[in-house]
Amino acid sequence: MLARLGSLLALVLVWQVAAHFSNPRLLPGPLAVLDAVAAQTASGALPRALGATLARVVAAFALAMTVGSALGYAMGRRAGVDRWLDAPLVVLLNLPALVIIVLAYVWIGLNEAAAIVAVALNKLPNAVVTLREGARTLDVGLDEMATVFNFSAWKRWRHVLLPQLAPFFATATRSGLSLVWKIVLVVELLGRPNGVGFEIGTAFQLFDVATLLAYALPFTAIMLAIETLLVQPFERHAARWRARPA
Amino acid sequence: MPPAGERAPLEANVVRKAARSAQGVEVEILRGLAFSLREGEVAALIGPSGCGKTTLMRILAGLDRAFEGFARRPPGVKVAMAFQEPRLLPWRSVEDNVRLAAPESSAQERAALFAALGLSEHRAHYPAELSLGLARRASLARALAAKPSLLLLDEPFVSLDPPLARAIRADLARLIDAKRLTGVLVTHDVDDALDLADVIYVLSARPAHILGEVRIETPRAPVTAQRRAALTAQVECLRG
Question: Of A209, B12, B72, B206, which has fewest CB within 10 angstroms of its CB?
Answer without folding.
Answer: B72
